[in-house]
Amino acid sequence: MLEADTPLIDAVRNGRVGVVVAMLADGAYDVNVPAKDGSGWTPLHVAVEKRHLSIVTKLLEANADANQRSIHGATPLCVACHLGHTEIVTKLLAANANVNQALMGATPLYIACQMGHAAVVTTLLAANANVTYARNEGGTPLYI
Q1: Cβ 106 vs Cβ 77: under 8 Å
Q2: CB 2: neighbour CB atoms within 10 A?
């Protein structure tokens, strides 16, 4: 049986912006502590997955690590690119998310291309994403 998650992750998951803001203002919660489920997902990963733009903004303002990887290597930017959330991609890039940090050989650009998210692709290209970075088997964003 998994133990209950951190109060901050629970508040993020449920979209409780006011509660998240209060917890961050209190300073008692580390924004980079991963979930207790073993996934390695931080509050920022969860906010991105749930598409809570205002919470993503608050977490980044509280110095959430935009490049922290889950146990499988996913960064918040990889998650946002998979979901096609251009506004969140833009916020993460503004917070210095690494535009070329790969997940199992797939860069955020590769992921966005694979999912068909044209607006995200455009945003990543504007941030100088590497179009020639190849996955382990040789596929590039241009190929996909």
Answers
A1: no
A2: 8
- Higher-pLDDT residue of 20, 36: 20
Q: What pTM, to 2 d.p., does this model score?
A: 0.92
Amino acid letter, residue 117: H
Tally of CB atoms within 10 A around 64: 23
Type of residue at 99: V
- What Cα–Cα distance (Å) separates residue 78 from each residue in 2, 19, 22? 26, 26, 28
- Reading the block at residue 86, the tokens are 């251009």
Rounded to the nearest angstrom, the gap between the alpha carbon of residue 24 and the centroid of all alpha carbons in its chain is 19
Residue 11, Cβ neighbours under 10 Å: how many? 23
Crossing angle for the helix pair 53-61 and 17-26, to the nearest 10 degrees: 10
Structure tokens at 56: 């993503």
